[in-house]
Amino acid sequence: MVFQGTSAIALDAKGRITVPVRQRDLLMQACEGRLTLTKHPDGYLWVLPRQRWEQVREQLMSMSMDADPWRRVFLGSAVDVDIDGAARILIPPELRSAAALGKDVRLIGNGRVLELWDAARHDAHEAQLLAQPMPAEIRSFVLR
Questions:
Q1: Residue 129 lies in domain
Q2: Which of 42, 46, 2, 40 is nearest to 22 (CA)?
Q3: 107 strand-pairing partners
Q4: pLDDT at 17
Q5: How far apart are CA 124 and CA 49, in angstroms?
Q6: What pTM, to 2 d.p., does this model score?
Q7: Mean pLDDT of all residues belonging to the chain
């Protein structure tokens, strides 16, 4: 399963987002809408199908004690959620706060994960990224 594309969506007053159809269909087929949300150190939330989260969790658990502070970021903030009958997921208040989510958010497919960003924060992050030189790996990328 590969996630791609960006959806501009709104966070409702109760802290829920409606999962766009293209991602929802994939998620319902792949994991019956069972997801895990967790903080990412770059200021957004990871949205992972539960079985993918279980793989990530196992990788984190196998790391040495030196990784404890980072493991705490990911495991300590992980919350299991389900897509409800109205195609929504509830973003818990502590995760909304951690990612500074306002009303306007973006759900971005980034390969094996979805990212949930505050729209303004994402725009600023992307502008900063685009102002930097491209890494060699990206500069040498050629479509075949």
A1: 6-139
A2: 2
A3: 7, 116
A4: 97
A5: 27
A6: 0.90
A7: 92
Q: What is the CATH number of the domain that holds 93?
A: 3.40.1550.20
- Do residues 8 and 103 lie in contact, with contact meaning Cβ atoms separated by under 8 Å? no
For 82, the 3-state DSSP assignment is strand
Residue found under tokens 């969506």: 9
The answer to whether residue 47 is domain-embedded is: yes
Nearest to 12 by CA among 89, 122, 99: 89
User: How many Å apart are CA 108 and CA 46, to the nearest integer?
Assistant: 10
Domain count along the chain: 1
* pLDDT, position 143: 62
Q: How far is CA 80 from the centre of its chain?
A: 13
User: Does a structural domain hold residue 91?
Assistant: yes
